[in-house]
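Case 285 in the screening queue. Each case pairs one protein sequence with one candidate compound; here the compound is biotin. For every case the pipeline is the same: read the inputs, emit a complex structure as tokens, and attach any notable structural observations.

Predict complex for case 285.
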Amino acid sequence: MEGSEILSLEVIEASLSTKIIGRGQRLDNLASENGDSSDLSKNELWDEIDSTNTRAAALAAQGCPEGVMVIARQQTAGRGRLGRAWISPPDAGISFSVVLRPKIELSRLPLITLATGVAVAQAIEASIGVRPGLKWVNDLTLSGRKLGGILAEMPGHALIIGIGINVRLKADELPDELKDKVEWLERAVGGPVDPNLVVMELAHKLEAQYELLKAGKTEEILALWRAYSVTLGQMIEARSANQVITGKAIDIADSGALIVEAEDGTRTELVAGEISLRLQDGSYC
Ligand code: BTN
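Case 285 output:
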């Protein structure tokens, strides 16, 4: 940790030239006692919070404008998809949520997770020079390990986009079941990473993807997603409550669904859930 940069709203906001994402004002009373800001247009940086998605949802319910960012140095109850916990120890990663209020058809909303994945991958590539992969539907990977994830939620009328990126985890403090499965930016580059640079890029790339989404430019989003994909062309296994589908992931549909082709040529469009990629030894991860 010594010499490592920590998240600073002042630094991030000073560099923003976005029109929507993060266009709020700085919240001076960092982590104010009751957590409620009277000015709902301010971005927030918390030393510690339960979940930035929960806080962003509360701000949205109070009527905050779209683009307000909630960032945290630590989450005590970070959430992942499918009811999982997301581990966010102090200054170990970027916990970022933003409130959006898109006026698009509900059927196109699943694309937001893919568009966000593109934005996060681009932001990491632009800020620190490593190129993450995108694993359908919400995972960012590096060297076959999980680097980050996206949790898009719709509590009420706003859309909350939550992004978690591992920056500097401590290998010996990880639960055993995660040790071989996660990656973090500082290990990947072999040196310190300034999380503020990543967040600055993220705000700009996310805004660009959001504009594409609102303009109906699905094909542009999907072309970018395909370019970062570590899923397409792979043998995959998808498990849901009542079935297991195996086959080759051949493409992404305009809806954001993953198109999987079984050995007998039948095709299935996966709209939700989670997939595992087949490894060389025939197992799935
Ligand atoms: C996943 O991989 O399942 C998604 C993980 C999403 C984690 C982020 S961290 C910021 C935001 N706040 C949360 O509680 N979750 C998301």
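Case 285 observations:
- The helical segments are 9-14, 52-61, 111-128, 185-189, 195-214, 218-228.
- The chain is about 25% helix and 25% strand.
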